[in-house]
Structure formats: structure tokens, C-alpha cells
Amino acid sequence: MPRPFRRPLRAALRPLKGRATQKDTSGGQGQKYPYPPLEHYVLTPDLKLNLQQLEEIFHRSGDVVKRDFCIGGRARAAIVYIDGLADKTLIEDTLLRTLQHVPSELAQALVDRSAPLDRLLEIIVPMADVDFVEKMADVVNHVLNGDAVLLFEGYRQAMATSTRSWEQRSISEPLTEGVVRGPREGFVENLRTNTALIRRRLKTPDLVVDNLLVGRYSQTNVSLVYLKSLVGPGLLEEIRRRLDRIDVDGILESAYIEEFIEDNPFSPFPQIDHTERPDKVAAALLEGRVALLIDNTPFVLLVPTLFVQFLQASEDYYERYWLASFLRVLRFVILNIALLLPSAYVAVSTYHQEMLPTNLVVRLAAQREGIPFPAVVEALLLELVFEILREAGVRLPRVVGQAVSIVGALVIGEAAVSAGLFSPAMVIVVALTGISSFALPKFSMAITIRLLRFIMLILAGVLGFYGIMLGLLAVLVHLNTLRSFGVPYLAPVAPYHRRDYKDVFVRAPRWDQELRPTQLGHRDPRRQAEGLQPVPPGADKGEKSGGGR
Amino acid sequence: MRRSLRAVFLLLSLTLIGMILDGCWSRREIEELALIMAAALDAEGENQVRLSAFIINPREIGGGQPMGAGGGGGTRMPGEIVTAVADNFAEATRRLEEHIPRRVFWAHNRVIILGDGLARRGLQSLDWFSRDRQMRLDTVVVLTEGEARRVLDLPPGIELNPGRIITGILNSHVILKVELKDLFAMWQARGDNPVVPRVVLLSPDEHSGSKLQGREGRPGGGGEGGEGREAPPAQAAPAAVRFDGAGVFKDDKLVGYLDHLETLGTMWLRGEVREGVITFNCPAHPEGQVAVRFYRSQTKVKPHVEGDKIRFLVKITAEGDLTEHTCDDSLKDPAQVRAMEEALRREVEKRAEAALDKAQKELKADIFGFGEVLHRQEPKFWKQVQDHWNEIFAGVEVKVEPRMEVRRVGMTYASVEAIRGNTGGKKTSPGGR
């Protein structure tokens, strides 16, 4: 958007925004006025004039359908909707047919205005979800959201009927967070479907779906979803405050919102978790978090977010806790490998050879014999090759992907080594590092680690382990400064909460996790009854009486 | 916001520049190192020293590039021996670098071989080994009669370099093992004197038994192994090493050697026995043999001071299993086992006495660290004797009290011979011992 255009428009918008937040008139969405504002358009009793106004507003767009018709052969009316967003069969087969065949005395009543419009329409319109609107802006808003709006000759009111129905992807398995055991439903691009997926898991009136509109042109629906009695005090207000600040052209993905509401916008670390699993969202809500659903993307944001969340997978909770705990510990190892292995290798092989076992030194020395680059350069080059291959693998059309992987494996694995450009040990190191970064459960954390790896590599090449320690220290200090909606990023480790440790490095059995994580500051700390550990049938009574006192 | 971004960039570029300007100075690529695996220290001339080092050739040992010298022939050299003469070892190392293309790297040195001549001159010249930061204090130290340099000529066999060969033997736990830190500790303590194990070079015959095998069977093992260095025929390149006895230092100078038995006795008295086998004749029938393999032992030294008189009581306890027993007594009888233990006790006593005799009467040096025990237990008394401890030690009374325990007698309780004919165990098979 060109700059000079922007300022006056924003100035024009400001008073309207204030008004928009005051009142929620139209049923479906929390409403901001369409953009640009439509102040000087009004609904008139003159149907023709109304249609002319609409034509002007929509600039005669090809997908806006307007049709005049007669109700019961007498009363003139028109229907407006957008082709592709509204359900055409519903409009044609049900709405129009019923209206056209209304008994003539009712139609006459419409013409005569012998009763209020809404009373009359109650009798003749066969739809449940309707809304009476009196402003042109509301009409436009409804039309843009896929509703069909009925305009009547002689009335200043219009009626919006919910006919939203458009082509959408069906619910499928989440691609980024697969599980062996666990629900296979993933979110889709449709906000309504997504809230329903959550609602299906938490059937309580406590589950609140709060709607907002963000984006001037995109008018994206954003839903704040939370459990009213669990969410921490002040958290909702803070989220709303941050969301209200956003005044941009469009929101096309959850990442747009994420970047606007992060606590530290300069940090390389992701401070807001996202997921496409409804079960994960439900679990987060039960811990007192808030989910941000954004229309047109299957990714849901979860706030507040802790560092450890990026090392947890939803399957941790579906597999036996022994294995889950093992995997948790393993992921910390993986994190360290992904971040440090190449730099540790470079540091050890160029500065601290005395730290290696003699046999290893001899092996490595033999492999490096005749390699034309210093170890740092070798590592950097090989990492670069790996990054190129990875990027190619992601961006390429799937059909040629095979070719890339074959060429890549051949180039790195075979030819480069036998040509004496890279040592086999370095290939192993880089490959293991790459695989480790894929083994991290969250991609957003993996890419951060990937970037930091290069910095660590340079530090290691220049200063050895001293450099690595400096780098790690810097990262640690930085992590300690981070907050996610006021919650320390490293909690419960850095502000130490002993009780929360049951779900950090290990995953305690379900019956042992009686309390919700404390650092989120929710209202009800207890998540389940006491003493749920299974006991043999005979001991059951004793246990109960024991629990009683 | 824009300003803070600029600050970040400034900081980042400053650190980067800083790193590039001052970094890398201690960088040395792993393949640029000359890894020393064994070092031989000799005396040279009046007061010069000679440093010989075995530098490994990683290409040959580590496998290296696949297109290396394939399975070519027998000319593979696991390493190179380099020598330099200088006033001291620090300088000698620099001299080494003058004629090898790589940086000398000591951290992987496995063994320091002291030549007889240098040892007699004194350990003072080893200061550099205690000071340089590339040194490892767990490098083993051995002594050899004659020139230490010759030990480096050990041909590759199962192990490829002399450092590995020597440490490999020492890791069997049956031989006195002295690491650099032990040597310095023994040297530095007033109530102790260094004892360093001695290696003896073996000719091919001595090593493998068969002359044919010894001479031609090992490529590179013969005279041509030493890189064309012409050795006199009598001093043909060694085929192997054996540990035999130990050298005894008084303060820092080598004064004499212990033989095998005395070394064992020293180990018992110092409490350094970890594993081993003791063989002796049957208590009742001298023809039969008993062997006990012990695996747990403890030595406790207690000083008793009465006026000027010092007595030491050495309590040795050990546990072991009977591994050979060709006497005709049945071990079903616990009394027999007690008798074995008694014989074992005498055997240990014999070794300890031999070592004590040698140390007190001949060498007049406390090689058992008894002085240090006294230092710890009777610090006041120690103050009076510390300056002439070795002389006092020569006249000190030492009582050795071994307590041996035989834990298991093996899978049978009597020898096959004894079960068969009860013949009195006369005919022990020659292979048995």
C-alpha cells in the first residue's frame, strides 16, 4: 500500500473504531465497519435506490448477485449475496421458492405495512438464523460474510439470512503434528468448524468464544477461546489490548497476529505456541490458557507459552508415562545436539584435541588428512549444503522431490567425501544434527535452533569451547529475559516451581498430576480429585477412607 | 524501535569484528598435529638430554582416505621416530619441531621411558613434564636399562605403537604401574622414594620362541624396521618388551634395581597389588603345586613409636580363588583350606621380606612410603627424623602380618590324580606348571 494514501485513511477510521467496539449489533461477528467506511450510505424505503447504493459500494463486482423478485406476486423485494460464499441451492430452492409462493394476503400485508416487518417475516421466512439490520454498513458486512440479505420495497430494514457455505477442505489428519495414538482430527481453514472441534471436546457453557475482527481489508475473524472459570485474571484483558492495537491491511495467517502480540519482537525464539490439533487446544484451555483461532488458517495460537512446551508433543500424554518421560529427556538431548554438535566438533577438533580419546583423535586426523578447508569452513559449507537441500526439499513440487533427495544424498554422502572435499566424520556430524533438528516436535523451535547453530559454529571456530560457552550464556540470559504474556518463558525452571516439575523433564502419571501448572495464574488450581491412583479391588475401601480424613 | 535495531546491529558487528581480529590464534587443525604416543628420555654427553618421540602416522593407523595405500605391502609404518638433543626437554621439543612438518602435541602421550643414564643423573630434568600444560599426569613412566630410545623401535604387532604396547601390558593390573603424578608424588615426599617399573627388551626368539617365526614372520620387525639405522648385530631391534623388576630411586637418583620377587614384595608393602597369581608347593607334599589367584587386597601400615624406636606393623589382607591344586589332599576338609591360606601367608611374607631386605640393607632407601605414614600418624615425631629418614629407615623394625583368605576352590575339590588313585600326588603332569 502506498504511503501517502495511508495516513488520511487511518485518521478517518479512528472515530469509527471507537464506535464499533461500543456495541455489537449484528449477531454473528463482533463488528467493525467495513473498510473503507460507508458512513454516507443509508437504507431507504426505496428499493431501487438501495440497490443502486449497493452497486456503487461493490463497484459492480462480478461475484455480487442481486435479484429482484416479488413476494407472493405482490410485494417487491430483492436479494443480495455473493456467489460462492452463499449456499445457492438453499437460496434458490428454499428461500426464493417459499417467498414467491407466499399467500397473497400476507404479501398484501407487506405492501400495506399493516404489521411490523419482523412479525410478518417470522411467518413467511423459512430460516432460523436471521438478523434484521438497519444500516447499509451492516448489509454490506453480511453480504461479505456470505449471508443473503433481503431488501424490501417500502422498508428501511433489511433481513440477513445465514446462508454461509463455501468450498472448504474437509477435516483431515494434522500434517505437522502426527501421532501414532491419539485423535487424528486437525483444524481446517474455517473458523466455525474449528470452534466446533473445540466445543465438541469441552461441552460446557464455560467455554467462551469471543469474536473480534482484525484487518482493514481482510476483516479477518479472530476468536478468543477460553474456559471462563479457569483463565487467569488479567490475561484476557491483556490479549484484547494487544489485539486491539493491530491495525493492518490484512491477516492471512496466525503468524501475522503472533508477530504483533509477542512480548519480545526481536527475539529469535518463538514466544507463542501454535498447533493444528484440537485435542492440544482443549488441553491448553484446561490448563487455563487462551486459544486464538484465526479464520482461514488451521493454526491456532496458544498463550501464554513456555519454553518447555516446544519440547513436548501431544503424544506424550497418550503413551505410557515411562516412555513419555524418556522421550522428554531425549528431546533435551536432541535440542543440544541440534544446537551444539557441529560447533562442539569444530571446537574439539581445532582447539581441544586433548579432550578426545586417543583413538578418536587418530581417526579424525586421518580423515581430515588432505581436506582443503579448516574444520570450521568445512562445517559451515556442509551445513550450507544441507540447508540448501532441505530448502529444496520443502519448496520443490512433490514430483521432483525424489530426484533432489537422490542427488543430495549422492552429492553429500558419496561424491564429496570420496573427492576429499569433506571428511566422513563431518558428514556424520552434520547429518546427525540435521536429523536431530527434525526430531524436535515443534518446527518453530527447530528453525530457531537451526539459526543459532550457525552462530555457535562461528563462535566455536573462532574461540573454541570458550566461544560456545559465551554463546550459550548469551542465549540463556536472553531466554531468561523473555516473557510470554507476563509468564516467564523458562518457567517452571527459571522461576522455580517445584510442583510444576511433574510435566517438564518427565511426564508424571495422569493420576499424579492433580494440580494445574501454577505459573499461568489460573483460578482453580486443582484439576482432578485426590487419590486417583488405581488400587487393587480389595484395597479400594481402605484407600477411600484414608483419603477421607 | 528503529534505534534499538541499529544498536543491535552495531553491537553485533562490533563483536564479530572483535572475534575475527583476536580469535583463531590458538587454532590448530587436528591433522596438523604430530601426536606423540611415546617418549624416550636419555642422557646425552655431559649434561645434555636427548628426547626421542614416537609420532603416530594417522593415515596408516586411522584408515584415512579410501584411496590410501590399499593393501599394498608390508611397508606400513605406524609412525615415525624423531630425536633431538638439547640442554633440556623443553628445548628439545622445539628442536623436534625443526625437523617434523607438524606441531608437536603431547596430550596424547601414553608413556615416558626413562633411560638408565638419565635416571642415574637425576630426575631434575623432568621439571618440564610437570609444568607444561599439554602433559597428562596419568602418562605411565617406565625405566629401561641402557638407552631408552631403543624401546621405541618396538615393531607393530597386535598394537601398532610402543606407547600402546607398554600401557596395554600395564593395564593387566599385575605389574607395578607408576604414572607421572605418582612419580612426582614419590619424589616430592620426604618419606618416600620413587620406584619405577623396568622394561626389558626381548629378542624375537625370546618373544615368540621359534626362531623362524621370530625373524621372518613379522614384516618390519627385523633389522629394517628401524628405518635403515644400522644397529650392531648383537643389538638387533627388539621384538617385544617384558616388565621385569623395578628401578629404585633415592631422592631423585636411580640407585639400583629390584628383581621380580622384590618388586612384588614392594607392591604388597605399598598396597599396590590389585590382581595376581601366587604359586607355591603343597604344604604337605612338595611335589604338588598350588596356585591362588587373588583379586582383592589391602595393606595397612601402622607405625609404633616408643622413644627413639620406631616399629612398623604392616597388615596385608587379601582374598583369592584357588585356581590350581595338584596336592592329593582333598579340599573337602576346611582344615586343608586353612593350611593353604597359611602357606599363602608365608609366601606373601617371603616376598615382603625380600623387598624389605633389599631396601633396608642394600639400597638404604624407603621405597615403601613408610615415612609418609609416619608423617601422617606421628607428625611431631616425623619432624625430628624427616631430614635423615632414609638412614633411620634402614634400621627400623618392620613386622609383616599377611592374612590370606581363599574364597573358592574351583569346580572340583581334589585333583583328578588324587581322585583316581590316591597315589600321593607324585606324578604331577609337567604341563600343570
Structure description:
The complex is a heterodimer of chains A (549) and B (433). Chain A has 18 helices and twelve strands. With 549 residues, chain A is of the alpha+beta class. In chain A, helix 7 packs across helix 10 and helix 13 packs antiparallel against helix 14. The N terminus and C terminus of chain A are likely disordered. Chain B has two domains: 220 residues, no CATH class; 175 residues, Nutrient germinant receptor protein C, domain 3 (GMP Synthetase, Chain A, domain 3), CATH 3.30.300.210. In chain B, strands 1, 2, 3, 4, 5, 6, 7, 8 and 9 form a nine-stranded mixed β-sheet that branches. Chain B has a four-stranded mixed β-sheet with strand order 10-11-12-13, with helices on both faces. Chain B is globular, with a radius of gyration of 27 Å. Classes of the chains: A alpha+beta (549), B alpha/beta (433). The interface between A and B is medium-sized, with 29 and 32 residues.
Low-confidence stretches of chain A: 1-31, 542-549
Structural class of chain B: alpha/beta
Looking at how many chains there are and whether they match, the oligomeric state comes to: heterodimer
What's the end-to-end separation of chain A, in Å?
A: 69 Å
Figure out the total of helices of chain A.
18
Fraction of residues in β-strands of chain B:
25-35%
Main sheet summary of chain B: 9 strands, mixed
Give the N-to-C terminal Cα separation of chain B: 89 Å
The percent of residues in helical segments of chain B reads 25-40%
Q: In angstroms, what is the radius of gyration of chain A? A: 30 Å
Task: Please state the average pLDDT score of chain A.
Answer: 85
Tally of helical runs of chain B:
15
Structural domain tally of chain B = 2
